Amino acid sequence: MVTVLKLGGSVITDKNTPETVDTRALAAAADALMSVSEPLVIVHGGGSFGHVHAAEHGISTTVGTTNWDGIYAVHAAMKRLNTAVLDVLHDRSIPAVPVHPLSVAERDRDGTLSLPVSSIDRLLKEGAVPVLHGDVIAHEEHGATVLSGDEVVTHVATGLSADRIGICSTVPGVLDDEDNVIEQIYSYDDVEAYLGGSESTDVSGGMAGKVKTLLSLGAPATIFGPEQLQPFLDGEAVGTYIDGSQ
Amino acid sequence: MVTVLKLGGSVITDKNTPETVDTRALAAAADALMSVSEPLVIVHGGGSFGHVHAAEHGISTTVGTTNWDGIYAVHAAMKRLNTAVLDVLHDRSIPAVPVHPLSVAERDRDGTLSLPVSSIDRLLKEGAVPVLHGDVIAHEEHGATVLSGDEVVTHVATGLSADRIGICSTVPGVLDDEDNVIEQIYSYDDVEAYLGGSESTDVSGGMAGKVKTLLSLGAPATIFGPEQLQPFLDGEAVGTYIDGSQ
């Protein structure tokens, strides 16, 4: 059973201080991961490492740059965070291996992402835990654009036919209009009243788009807060369970 | 015209001192690269960064390990050298971008290498200079094994249909029995007398295997010493020209 786990950048970094790891939160996450014995892919966000540099160089998922010094600066910052994550995992004897999207992914003119997963699949089968991250990648006629951690999760989960997806962020799940966690979502109709119509763009911090994307995957996804990571890994029901594959 | 250039590990590092860049040699190579305006892929070897760690953990191109701490140590050392190379190139405004083989390549049970080049191709077309290196990669049923810089050159040159290949090492070319540089090689028959029969293994420091591999590519390759890098890039005839595609 292959699990793809997103560790939000806001979980493992101090978003208010440039390039600062939240060492306590990262250690807690790593402690929880020690219990995992089945195939696991980790994807972490950029937090205070990626976003500062991306903003400085005016790069987003759609707006690119051919300033390769700037691209290299964003990538190098993401690698510093990735190395911090890897080091904490290795301290706990988790067989973590870095996989950098810039090395393997690219977008065509229409923004369609190509991210071959053969190396990730092989690493998993050999017993390693690949650790990917949000990054900058080559984009046809745009130089390079940002690849978000969420996009990595979606494409890697699909490419590997993952069995479950975990999204560990600073929110405890998808919230209704009284800020209660919605336990299960099987179609967008279940949450349209809270997140906006199916045509709406991201009115609630990107949650509408996130839910739509997760509903479109072939495997169930769960959105939960950091304190729910261990129970999620143990197979317990936590946060919001999203499954559009029924 | 796409050029794939190998910078030997023995050229850019001090092979006798662990993890030591030959800063003067690296700067000279980077200075020469400033003149390049056409698509260029750089591949560097491990030198005193990769080999020490690989030997310590008992890893080679055929002998693997599932000690992921060791694999991570070898990879991290290669990345330190790669960062040193990238930094020197960026100092000279060369639009260099790192591409790490561990992220993109893997071997099957028979040792056959898979190395998708879509990301490298896109980077090239967007005007970047991808910089790859020898590395450790996942290998079916072996954990991870070493991927040599020479293997990267061969596969990337083939995958990109490169127009020319440059091998910059510490030898000035392929030598005959009087240590004179052989100027041109169009078939193995031309050098069998010096390098051994076609069935021979690497009797002269790997040169026999290297020549055979380069003859099998669809593009001409040139082997030359560091002081010939600038003339090679300028299109002059230097070292040994190897072309088996006639």
Keywords:
246 residues, Carbamate kinase, four-stranded mixed beta sheet, 37% helix
What report would you give on this structure?
By secondary structure, chain A is an alpha/beta fold. Chain A has one domain: 3-Layer(aba) Sandwich (Carbamate kinase). Helices cover 37% and strands 19% of the residues of chain A. The first copy, chain A, is built from 10 helices and 12 strands. The first copy, chain A, has helices spanning 9-12, 23-33, 47-56, 68-91, 101-104, 118-125, 149-159, 192-195, 207-215, 229-233, and strands at 3-7, 40-44, 96-98, 106-107, 113-114, 129-133, 135-139, 143-147, 164-168, 184-185, 221-224, 240-242. In chain A, the strands form 2 sheets. Chain A has an 8-stranded mixed beta sheet with strand order 3-6-2-1-9-11-12-10, with helices on both faces. In chain A, α3 packs antiparallel against α4 (68-91). The two termini of chain A are 19 Å apart. The mean pLDDT of chain A is 94. Chain A binds chain B through residues 66, 68-69, 71-72, 75-76, 83, 86, 90, 93, 95-107, 114, 116, 118-119, 121-123, 125-128, 137-144, and chain B through 66, 68-69, 71-72, 75-76, 83, 86, 90, 93, 95-107, 114, 116, 118-119, 121-123, 125-128, 137-144. Chains A, B: Catalyzes the phosphorylation of isopentenyl phosphate (IP) to isopentenyl diphosphate (IPP). Functions in an alternate mevalonate (MVA) pathway leading to IPP, a key precursor for the biosynthesis of isoprenoid compounds such as archaeal membrane lipids. Chains A, B: It catalyses: isopentenyl phosphate + ATP = isopentenyl diphosphate + ADP. Chains A, B: Keywords: ATP-binding, Isoprene biosynthesis, Kinase, Nucleotide-binding, Transferase. Chains A, B: InterPro entries: AceGlu_kinase-like_sf, Asp/Glu/Uridylate_kinase, Fosfomycin_R_FomA-type.
